[in-house]
Amino acid sequence: MTIYALSSGPGISGLAVIRVSGPETKRIIENLTNSPPPKPRYATLKKFSKINTNELIDEGILLWFPGPQSYTGEDMAEFHVHGSRAVIEAIHAAISKIGDCRLAEPGEFTKIAFQNGKINLLKAESISDLISAETEMQRQQAIKIMSGKSLEKFNDLRNRLLKILSNVEAKIDFPEEDLPDEIIKNIKIESKKIKEEIQKILSDNKVGELIREGFKIAIVGPANAGKSSLLNFLSNRDVAIVSEIAGTTRDVIEVHLNLDGYPVTISDTAGIRDSKDEIERKGVKLALKKAENSDLNIILIEPKSADFTGFLNDLVNEKGLIVVNKSDLGIEKIDQEIKKYKPIYLSVKEEKNLDVLIKAIKEKLKKKFIKSDDVLITRERHRQNLEQCVFHLNNFEKKNSLEEFDKASEDLRLATRHLGVIVGKVDVEEILGSIFNDFCIGK
Q1: At 267, which helix (H) or strand (E)?
Q2: Rounded Cα–Cα distance for residues 49 and 169 (Å)
Q3: What letter does residue 307 receive in the DSSP assignment?
């Protein structure tokens, strides 16, 4: 099947790129240009016409990439045309009339590239992250993964595990042949060393995921404390409805921001209070859940929030920042229970001390986003597979100490598989290859 899709962004633009990949690519070029494919990998000016009628659609640039020397590994082409909706739809309609052609699914070009061995799974993910990058920090992380540093590390760990597994498999297959004591000793030392290296990778405070997904900040507090007004100020636009009526916000409103290069997701939540309204109660429940899962909570109260002190014990912790809004109304009547937390006093309405709050947020961000060249995990699936790898290596060590090689080999095999899943490489034949390369079995 040949696939096609608009690869540039949707909407009116000076230029649009329509990508085609598959066995019918050459025929598509011939039908749309009434000529054979141009010289490979050279930009060629061509007229693109409707099939059968020869009615001109547009004039633009054609790029022809014969497989396997292409991004997907298949025959591929790119049509660079003017970026109007009419031109794009006309090109799509013309291609659809050719047999065995269909619109591509999301990410399908990159999926085919992975399946054809043109890229590894980590690089495929980093391409997606690079396209989605909103901050310089996210861009740098995506480029680092694309460069292959994570792949190199995970492949190295995996190859070392395969080496150990080949020795264990040899012991099982040839029980009458005793492995040298040095090899048995090395199995124990090397497996423990690999486990410790993976544990070190896991102890990264989830910086990679924070950079990719954004630092989660929740604005929580009682009703009518000014949470929506604060969100609008930080976003520099009106994203939340502001009203004097308490309980206006019922659901969670999220905004993605670039705060001095730091990727941040700020959530405005429903006012926390006792309510008989079922919808508002659900909103309060969502607010508390958002606070629980956030990286930082801005606990916003105002001088009249004396009845909110009961919630403070549940919300104030190392990721909580107490902020008193509407300080222009006077702070002398603030509850002593609140004062002991040394809150930040500000007024969103009069834009007073908001710079102090932003500075405090940045300090929290700096502590979380400590740059480290050792950060290799950017997604939860990487972390889960590494944790499973450590789990099986622990089991391997216990059984290995009792010389239960037949049972221990399965744990080692599972540990190796979890590393392979990260990079998208799982092949049992590699174990056999390692045995044949390192042992003279025929002798």
Answers
A1: strand 262-268
A2: 62
A3: G
CA distance 349 to 116: 58
pTM beyond 0.85: the answer is no
Residue 285 · residue 237 · CB < 8 Å: no
**Reported CATH class of domain 149-204+377-438:** mainly alpha
pLDDT tens for each residue of 233-259: 888 766 554 444 444 454 568 888 888
Q: What is the rounded distance in angstroms from the CA atom of residue 44 to the CA atom of residue 42?
A: 6
Half-sphere exposure of 18 (CA within 13 A, CB side): 30
Least confident stretch, 67-81, 161-175, 414-428: 161-175
Task: Yes or no: say if 361 and 217 are a contact pair by the CB < 8 Å rule.
Answer: yes
| DSSP tag of 349 | T
How far is Cα 325 from Cα 289, in angstroms, rounded to an integer?
23
Cα gap 409→287, rounded to integer Å: 48
The two three-digit tokens of residue 345, written as one number:
């006093």
pLDDT in tens, 327-338: 777 766 666 667
What are the extents of the domains in the chain? 2-114, 149-204+377-438, 211-368
Q: Report the C-alpha gap between 97 and 54 in whole angstroms.
A: 14
> Which superfamily does 2-114 belong to?
Probable tRNA modification gtpase trme; domain 1 (3.30.1360.120)
User: Regarding the domain delimited by 211-368, which CATH topology (the fold level of the hierarchy) does it fall under?
Assistant: Rossmann fold (3.40.50)
Structure tokens at 132: 């989605």
For Cα atoms 303, 282, 209, give the angle at the middle one, nearest 5 degrees. Answer: 85
DSSP-based three-state secondary structure for 210: helix
